[in-house]
Amino acid sequence: MKTLVSPSLLAADFLHLKDEIEMINNSEADWLHLDVMDGFFVPNISFGFPILEAVSKVCKKPLDVHFMIVHPEQYIEQTAKIGAMMMNVHYEACTHLHRTIQQIHAAGMKAGVTLNPSTPVFMLEDIIRDVDMVLLMSVNPGFGGQKFIENTIRKVERLRRLINETGSHALIEVDGGVQAETAPRLVKAGVDVLVSGSYVFKSTDPYATIEALKKLK
Ligand code: DX5
Ligand code: ZN
User: Where do the catalytic residues lie (predicted)?
Assistant: First the structure.
């Protein structure tokens, strides 16, 4: 399978959001990654539904929404309403993860579970066959442009093993510090989907940057 690329809008120029989304539409990007933060689950606030809704109207790529918020289960219907393809919720924010995953599916979306850097992959043993994607954070969530945490490579390998052993169909996505040096190693370790914020949006040629990420195998 070719590597999927999900550029993170957090690093875009918010005064020219429409141009940035047109760029994504015309690029080889597979999805658009949208980071919602609440100032509780993570020490930062990004954007919420008014922006998601506006973006959904112009973006032609499937929306990969990453909720860094407490009680994400309260926003399942609203997320489905904007036509999101994937709803990612944090393992650490969901007391009843199995129920939340079922509710996301019932709302017609794919369900992703996200792990903070300190949460081990084995916590997913009993849910891995129910999810469509596992999003491994390779930085502590909350900010773009941070340094990649090296341990993520081993984590990807362990997750790949767990997926193979259990016959799960889950994709592996990695988010944080994905750039020229880390991306090839991540793909080699077993990553299916690369999220990339600053490396794509701050690049002098974002089209070529996305294309280069897509070529990795
Ligand atoms: C961080 C967000 C990421 C962020 C990645 O909390 O989840 O999606 O935009 O940014 P880069 O690629 O710059 O590390
Ligand atoms: Zn993200």
Answer: 35, 175
pLDDT in tens, 21-34: 999 999 999 999 99
Residues annotated within the binding site for substrate are 8, 66, 142-145, 175-177, 197-198
Per the annotation, the verdict on 192 as an active-site residue is: no
* pLDDT band for position 14 (cuts 50, 70, 90): very high
Beta-bridge mates of residue 87: 65, 111
Q: What is the pLDDT, as a whole number, of residue 2?
A: 87
Ligand 1 center to 144 CA (angstroms): 4
Known active-site residue 35: yes
Class of CATH domain 4-215: alpha beta
Q: Where are the domains of the chain?
A: 4-215
pTM above 0.80, yes or no: yes
CA distances from 91 to 98, 124, 182, 195 (A): 10, 9, 24, 18
Atom of ligand 1 nearest to the CA of 179: 12
pLDDT band at 184; cut points 50, 70, 90: very high
The answer for residues whose C-beta is within 8 angstroms of residue 71's C-beta and 6 or more apart is: 93
The pLDDT value recorded for residue 32 is 99
Q: Which of 5, 10, 202 to mutate to test the pocket of ligand 1 (most atoms within 8 A of CB)?
A: 10
Query: Degrees (nearest 5) of the Cα angle 72, 78, 83?
Result: 115
Q: State which ligand 1 atom lies nearest to the alpha carbon of 197.
A: 12
**What are the φ/ψ torsions at residue 86 (nearest 5 degrees)?**
-125, 130
